[in-house]
Every structure is written in C-alpha cells, then in structure tokens.
Write a structure and sequence with these properties.
The complex is a heterodimer of chains A (113) and B (114). With 113 residues, chain A is mainly beta. Helix content of chain A is 0%, strand content 60%. Chain A has no helices and eleven strands. In chain B, the strands form two sheets. In chain B, strands 2, 4, 5, 6, 9, 10 and 11 form a seven-stranded mixed β-sheet that branches. Chain B has a four-stranded antiparallel β-sheet with strand order 1-3-8-7, with no helix packed on it. At the A-B interface, strand 4, strand 5 and strand 10 of A face strand 4, strand 5, strand 9 and strand 10 of B.
C-alpha cells in the first residue's frame, strides 16, 4: 500500500526566497513519485516526476525535487520564489507498473512581496 | 489538441436527484480515474478503470457509479445516496500499466447541492 504525507498545509515565503515543500511517502514497492500544481478552480498540472532514473529531478517553472530513499522523502524546491508560484501543490505516489495515484493533502503556497 | 475534457464546469443538483459528470479523453489512454477534492483533504479516489468494460472502487465509492463502455469516456454518476456531494470533481487518465506513469487531469466540475 502507498501513502503520502505533506508537512505543512500552508507555507508562506517572500518573493525571491527559497521555496521548500515537504513530502514523505510510504510504499511497499519501488515508487513512482510526482508533484502537481493546482491554480484556483482548475485541474492539476504535472510539475515533475521520479521514475527510478536520476534521483534529482528537474521540472517546469524552475522547480526540482530530490528522491531520498533512506529518508522516504521527495521534497520540492525552487531557489527563488515568484508571485506566480502562489498555488496549491500536491505530492503523489504510485506503485511501479500500476498507475493508481495516491495524493497527499496538499500544501498551499503563498508568496508575498 | 490532445487532452481531457470535463463537462459541465459547474453543476447544480437538487437533493434527491442523480447527476452525471462527463469525462472524455483523446490521449488513447487505457486508464481513467475520478477523484473528489474537498478543502484540506487533497484528492480522494472514487473509481478507476484500467481497461474498457472494467472498473474498480476507490476509497470513497459509496453513492457513486461509473461506466466504461468506450476507451475515451468514463462518466461519473452522483446518486441520491451520496449524502454530501458538494465538491470539486476531477477526472484523470494515464497510459496504463507499463506506460508513462503520470496522470493527466481535466479542468474539473464543481458540483453544488441546492
């Protein structure tokens, strides 16, 4: 069985500051891991994915995430926040070869001037 | 233009009525999913289908029904048995077992009980 825990339901940063959104997962098989972003009243857009290749994954809009098996973590980072990054972010996990995605509760990112 | 289309974007239901949410994809994906989103609870899986004419219950299937008669279509019916249907509903698809694992999402349907 798979599960995801996102630490912090709300994160607030200043424009230009580092963004760090935390995700820990549980999986009985090697996982696929994902970060999605959601803007108000819209669907989810894929930011990046880990599929057992490189442990440091680069995504769109300057985001990246590092898979750490020993810590069962897949934290999302961006060196410098932009106002347009304000949105809700979801971490998700699925089992290799079986595509049902299990989502965390989400983290709402606020960016202030 | 490939993608997933959900309709309608907004839907109002009277208590005791069944309503059907539409989801169509032209990505040639085998797998399709329905999620429910409530504030602070993330996305919860209602039903999923990995192949035509087959589907499985997710974590919160009670009060919902689905069909998968065509590869492109996976409609969700919210029945009168669903006691608290007001929510944002998201449909997604993925290529299926062995393919690229990420899911692609539609723009959602916001259902409100009036």
């Amino acid at each position: 069985a798979q599960s995801v825990t996102q630490l912090g339901s709300h994160v607030s940063v200043s424009e230009g500051a580092l963004v760090l959104l935390r995700c820990n997962y549980s999986s009985s098989v090697p996982p696929y891991l994902f970060w999605y972003v959601q803007y108000p009243n819209q669907g989810l857009q894929l930011l990046l994915k880990y599929t057992s290749a490189a442990t440091l994954v680069k995504g769109i809009n300057g985001f990246e995430a590092e898979f750490k098996k020993s810590e069962t973590s897949f934290h999302l980072t961006k060196p410098s926040a932009h106002m347009s990054d304000a949105a809700e972010y979801f971490c998700a996990v699925s089992a290799s070869g079986y595509n049902k995605l299990i989502f965390g509760a989400g983290t709402r990112l606020a960016v202030h001037p | 233009d490939g993608g997933i289309t959900q309709s309608p974007k907004y839907l109002f239901r009277k208590e005791g009525q069944n309503v059907t949410l539409s989801c169509e994809q032209n990505l040639n994906h085998d797998a399709m999913y329905w999620y429910r989103q409530d504030p602070g609870q993330g996305l919860r899986l209602i039903y999923y289908s990995q192949i035509v004419n087959d589907f499985q219950k997710g974590d919160i299937a009670e009060g919902y029904s689905v069909s998968r008669e065509k590869k492109e279509s996976f409609p969700l019916t919210v029945t009168s048995a669903q006691k608290n249907p007001t929510a944002f509903y998201l449909c997604a698809s993925s290529s299926g077992t062995g393919g690229s694992p990420e899911a692609f999402f539609g723009q959602g349907t916001r259902l409100t009980v009036v």
